[in-house]
Specification:
Helix content is about 50%, strand content about 25%. The chain is of the alpha+beta class. Helix 3 packs across helix 4. The longest helix has 21 residues.
Length: about 100
């Protein structure tokens, strides 16, 4: 970076992008991650655990519902999430469970 400052151009940007693009892409992918799939795969490694999602609350009018879902592993609550769809609430619950296990 310092060497390229005097060159008049900005070749340092190319170097930074080339070196750090994989990191930036993985961070972007983290935001698009399917936490339900990640949790399912983690649970399947054990082979004997059962993962389920249970809707515990539904509030609001039909056109603007808010769902609350808990994630259970062997009937033990490991996460809770809310969202405008059941899937969104399940994703939040799965993310909470994964953070409990230190995965995210």
């Amino acid at each position: 970076y310092i060497d390229s400052k005097g060159a008049g151009g900005e070749p340092h940007k190319d170097v930074v992008h080339r070196l750090f693009a994989p990191i930036f892409e993985s961070e972007t992918m983290l935001h698009k991650t399917d936490y339900k799939t990640m949790l399912q795969q983690l649970i399947e490694q054990d082979g004997s655990s059962i993962l389920e999602y249970v809707v515990t609350d539904e509030t609001g009018p039909d056109h603007n519902k808010l769902f609350t879902v808990i994630a259970l592993i062997n009937n033990n609550k490991v996460g809770e999430g809310t969202g405008k769809t059941k899937r969104q609430a399940e994703m939040h619950a799965a993310k909470m469970a994964l953070s409990l296990f230190g995965v995210v």
